[in-house]
Amino acid sequence: PPLITHMQSEDMFIASQSSACLANLAEIEENQLIIAKDGGIRPCISVMRSRYVEVQRESGRLLANLCASNAEVATGAIIGGGGHHLLASYLLSQDTACQRVGAFGIGNLCTHNQHRVTLLKAG
Predict the structure, then answer these.
(1) pTM of the model
(2) DSSP H helical segments within 8-115, as ranges?
(3) Burial group, residue 123, by CB count within 10 angstroms (0-12, 13-18, 19+)
(4) How far is CA 3 from the centre of its chain?
(5) Cβ within 8 Å of residue 77, ≥6 positions away
(6) Collapsed DSSP state (helix, strand, coil) of residue 64
(7) pLDDT in tens, the chain (123 residues)
(8) Measured at the alpha carbon of residue 63, what is the angle toward residues 62 and 65, in degrees to the nearest 5?
(9) Is residue 35 a contact partner of residue 41, using CB atoms and an 8 Å limit?
(10) Which of 91, 94, 95, 33 is nearest to 66 (CA)?
């Protein structure tokens, strides 16, 4: 899908705007499953390591929204891909928007009983 491809662009503006668009779409529950099934989680986790804070913010917001999904295909891929570790590392960011996104994502993951032990062990 084009937005997932563009999210991985080397161009900061294209990557951040594509991530922002996907994050907005992921606010709707039905879209969370679609993004997960279209393979958007692994690229999102990768893009969260961008050198650009603008891309970090928006890709982190996307992952945080996906953490609210009731679909195990989404939350399982987030945990399996180490997304929970990145969200926790965002709590230590110098950027307050990244800190907020990290807390939001971890909070959303904590609503899923099957992931609570994993999150506690991760710190």
Answers:
(1) 0.94
(2) 12-25, 29-37, 41-47, 53-66, 72-80, 83-90, 96-109
(3) exposed
(4) 14
(5) 36, 41, 42, 83
(6) helix
(7) 999 999 999 999 999 999 999 999 999 999 999 999 999 999 999 999 999 999 999 999 999 999 999 999 999 999 999 999 999 999 999 999 999 999 999 999 999 888 888 888 887
(8) 65
(9) yes
(10) 33
C-alpha to C-alpha distance for 19 and 25, rounded to whole angstroms: 10
The encoded tokens of residue 35 equal: 């993004």
- Alpha-carbon distance of 95 to 11, in angstroms, equals 20
Run of H or E including 118: helix 116-122
**Chain-centroid distance, C-alpha 88:** 11
Contacts of 1 (CB under 8 A, 6+ apart): 38, 39, 40
**What tokens does 36 get?**
């997960």
Looking at residue 115, the DSSP 8-state letter turns out to be G
Q: Which DSSP state fits 49?
A: T
For residue 119, what is the enclosing H or E element?
Answer: helix 116-122
Contacts of 91 (CB under 8 A, 6+ apart): 99, 102, 103, 106
